[in-house]
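To close the section, here is one more complete example, presented without commentary so you can practise reading it yourself. The ligand is zinc ion.
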Amino acid sequence: MGAETGKKGKDVEKRTEKRVAKKKNSNILVVFGLVLLFVLGLIFVLYGLGLEHVRIGSAGMNTAKQEEQAKPEDHLVTESAVKDEPKTDEKANGGKTTTPKGIEEPKQEPVDKKPTADASGTVSKAGENVKLIGPSDGEYASIYPEMKTSAPEERQSFGNTLFLTFDDGPGAGTEQVLDTLKAHGVKATFFVVGNRIGDDTAPLLKRMVDEGHTIGVHTTCHEYKTIYASVEAYLEDFHTTYEKIHDYTGTYPQIFRFPGGSVNSFNKSVYRSIIAEMKARGFTYYDWNISTGDASQGYTPESIVANSLKGLKYKDTGKNAILLAHDTNVTSAAQVDAIITAFENEGFSFAPLSPIVKPVTF
Ligand SMILES: [Zn+2]
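Output:
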């Protein structure tokens, strides 16, 4: 029994050893598994951190791109700010604009400088770089749609300059007026009447152009009730003279003067509409601030000169001085020499009107 018991004890011992060995093996597996899990976990965590890093990196790149794109916008803002500058200066300088460097500079003539223009008042000769405003569609644009022109964006005042203007011709005094102007080397403006333009008066119109004067439209019939009956009636009357001036001189007029002035007792109901339409077409009209009074009853050579010399009040004011006379009036024509001499003695210059000249209007 003892030997048997000893054998049994050895078997138990062996079994126990085996069990212990099995336990050791399983412990190694568990440890290995844990290590594996730890390593995998570590890789996973590191990989995750890596993605996050990439994401931050790409976000940083986006920010850089946004900054790059923003730069051109900043330039645009700067440019538009520069373009706006003249507006500010306009207020500060009382209407005079200052062009910033780098922007196309419109030709600005000093106040005392003589304007120059050809007989039709062509702007290009008054200043080649003058900015022009094209015509826009007025309410009556369908009537004579080709009858339109361009006006300068900015008008100018010419101090100590007399703008002699002669209405109603060509007529009895036109030749004497032209001779006197030529003798003084003075340029003036003629607002002509279409019904007086024909082959017989064509040489006078040709002289006006050749000798550097401006021709503007006055009217065709000069009958207030007819021309101021409606906007359509005014356009029709204007159109006839407009085309006649072109037929006889080869140039279209850009300026005009209303018969009786822009505001008179015959056109109160329509003058606003006519002015709006003519402005939309690009034409410039001029009233006057000095009158010879040669259309009034009882005028004399002395009264014509005396009335004209009232215009000397504009000396050194910087304002445009526009004198009204009629070259159909021979008495008036005979006084042009005395009027020019008197203004010359006061240091005045003389110039023809052109659209660059700031209008005198009622
Ligand atoms: Zn008239």
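Once you have examined the tokens, check your reading against these statements. Strands lie at 132-133, 151-152, 161-167, 189-193, 214-219, 255-256, 284-285, 290-291, 321-326, 349-350. Residues 2-92 form the longest helix (91 residues).
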